[in-house]
Design a protein that fits this description.
Distance between the termini: 98 Å
Helix content: under 10%
Radius of gyration: 47 Å
Order of helices and strands: EEEEEEEEEEEEEEEEEEEEEEEEEE
Number of domains: 5
Structural class: mainly beta
CATH class of the largest domain: Mainly Beta
Strand content: over 45%
Number of helices: 0
C-alpha cells in the first residue's frame, strides 16, 4: 500500500493572514492543474489560516518524487501566489536486502553484482576480485538493493594492492628531522645481503647529524619490489655523530710480485667501516669487500705498480691507501741501496738521502702517464727535500742520476 501524504509535509509554511477573511485553499499534484484536477477545500472564514493539521490524500500517486502545489482564497475571490513542496512516495515495508553490487575506483561502468542472504539486517562479507588492479592505492565502492528495487547510498573503503611475494628487504632509511618531505639528515643504508625478515637494525650510522643524546628517530624499510613500509619511530640515544671511516693502514702483503701468481693482502680493521674497496692494478683479478683480498697477477706485469684499499660505511668512503709493488724480475741495476726516499707514501714532503760516495747530480719525477712534472739539479750532495705538497694523489716515478748510474724509485702521493 502506498503511504498517504500528510499536510505536515507541505504546510510547514502553510499559514496565511489577510485583511479579507480567508475562505479556503486548493491544491493539485505535479502538472495536474486543470479545472477538474484542482481540489478546493473550504474553511470557516477567518483572518488567519493554519493548514498544519490538514491531511491531504496521496494514495493515487505512483512511487517516486512528486510536487504538491497550493494557493489560498479570500472572501473577495482573490487568490494568493502558488506555493509548492517536493516529496517522495515510497513502498511501505517491511523491506529486505536481497543483493548488492561493487566497483573499483571510477570504473562504475563495470559494476559487479553479488548475492546476499535476504534479511532486514545483514552482516556483509564479500570477496571482490582485484587481480586486474595495478599496484597502489584503490577504492572499492558498493551499495545494497532491497526487494522493492531501491538502492542504498554508495559506501566505499580504501585499500592497497601490493606486489606478490616472496619479498626481500633491501634498503633502510632513517631520519630525525620532523620535516617529512625533505628531512635534512636522512640516511640510507643498504641491507646486503637482502633478507626476508629483519628483527633489529644493528648498523645504524648517524651521519653528520646535528643532534646527539636521546633522539626520536624515524625508520622505513624498502623491499625488492620498490615498496616502502610504514614509518615507525624509536627513541635512540645517539652517543656520537658518525662520519666516513678513516683511511686504512698500509696493506700487509708481498711488495715484490711475479706473473701468474696468487697473493694475499690485508689491512687492520678500521673502526666504523662497513666494508672495503680494493683497487687492483690493470690485469689483476680478485674481489673482496672485507679487510683482506686474494689476487691473481697476469702473465706480464710492469716493473712498478700499486694496490689500493679504501674503507666505507653508510656515511661515505675514506681516502685510498696505496701499497707500491715492484716486479720481482725488475732489473736490480735500476736500484741503488745507497739512495733512499722517505716517507713513502707521502702527504707533502719526502727526502732523498744519498748514503753513497757518488753525488746526486739530477732528479727527474714522472707521473703515471710518463710526463715530467719535476726536473731539478740539486746542489746538496747527501740530502734533498722533494716538495710534493701540490702534486695530485697517485703513483710517481723518481729517477736519480749519479754520474753514469740511474736509480729508479716509486713514490706514492697520498694527501
Amino acid at each position: 500500500m502506498r503511504s498517504k501524504l500528510l499536510a505536515l509535509l507541505l504546510l510547514a509554511t502553510g499559514w496565511a493572514r489577510a485583511q479579507d477573511p480567508l475562505v479556503g485553499y486548493e491544491y493539485w499534484f505535479d502538472q495536474a492543474d486543470a479545472d477538474n484536477e484542482r481540489i478546493f477545500v473550504g474553511q470557516t472564514p477567518q483572518n488567519e489560516l493554519d493548514l498544519g493539521n490538514e491531511a491531504i490524500p496521496a494514495s493515487t500517486l505512483g512511487l517516486g518524487q512528486h510536487r504538491i502545489h497550493y494557493r489560498i482564497k479570500d472572501s473577495s475571490g482573490e487568490w494568493s501566489s502558488v506555493l509548492y513542496r517536493a516529496f517522495s512516495v515510497f513502498e511501505t515495508g517491511p523491506f529486505e536486502l536481497v543483493s548488492g553490487e561493487y566497483w573499483f575506483d571510477e570504473d562504475d561502468q563495470n559494476r559487479v553484482v553479488f548475492p546476499v542472504t535476504p534479511g532486514q539486517a545483514i552482516d556483509l562479507t564479500i570477496s571482490p576480485d582485484a587481480s586486474a588492479l595495478g599496484i597502489g592505492q584503490h577504492r572499492i565502492h558498493y551499495r545494497l538493493r532491497d526487494d522493492h528495487g531501491y538502492w542504498s547510498s554508495v559506501l566505499y573503503n580504501t585499500f592497497n594492492v601490493h606486489s606478490a611475494g616472496p619479498f626481500e628487504l633491501v634498503l633502510m632509511r632513517y631520519w630525525s628531522d620532523p620535516a617529512y618531505q625533505t628531512p635534512t639528515d636522512m640516511t640510507e643504508v643498504a641491507i646486503n645481503p637482502s633478507v626476508s625478515f629483519w628483527e633489529t637494525a644493528n648498523d645504524i650510522l648517524f651521519c653528520d647529524w646535528s643532534t646527539t643524546g636521546n633522539t626520536e628517530v624515524f625508520f622505513q624499510i624498502k623491499d625488492d619490489h620498490g615498496q616502502w613500509s610504514s614509518v615507525i619511530s624509536a627513541s635512540i640515544d645517539v652517543d656520537a655523530v658518525t662520519g666516513a671511516p678513516i683511511a686504512p693502514s698500509l696493506p700487509v702483503g708481498p711488495g715484490s710480485v711475479d706473473p701468474n701468481m696468487s697473493y694475499d693482502y690485508t689491512v687492520t680493521p678500521v673502526a666504523g667501516a662497513g666494508g672495503y674497496t680494493w683497487l687492483l692494478p690493470n690485469g689483476w683479478t680478485g674481489n673482496s669487500t672485507g679487510n683482506s683480498v686474494t689476487v691473481q697477477t697476469p702473465g706480464t706485469i710492469p716493473g712498478i705498480d700499486s694496490i689500493g684499499v679504501a674503507a666505507y660505511n653508510g656515511c661515505g668512503a675514506s681516502d685510498t691507501t696505496w701499497l707500491v709493488l715492484l716486479a720481482t724480475g725488475l732489473d736490480p741495476g735500476s736500484f741503488n741501496k745507497h739512495v733512499r726516499l722517505f716517507p713513502n707514501p707521502t702527504n707533502g714532503e719526502s727526502w732523498i738521502v744519498n748514503e753513497g760516495s757518488t753525488a746526486i747530480d739530477h732528479i727527474l719525477m714522472l707521473n703515471s702517464m710518463g710526463q715530467v712534472i719535476y726536473d731539478e739539479r740539486p746542489t746538496s750532495t747527501d740530502r734533498y727535500t722533494l716538495d710534493l705538497s701540490n702534486a695530485a694523489n697517485g703513483l710517481y716515478t723518481v729517477r736519480i742520476s749519479q754520474g753514469t748510474n740511474t736509480t729508479t724509485l716509486p713514490v706514492m702521493v697520498q694527501h
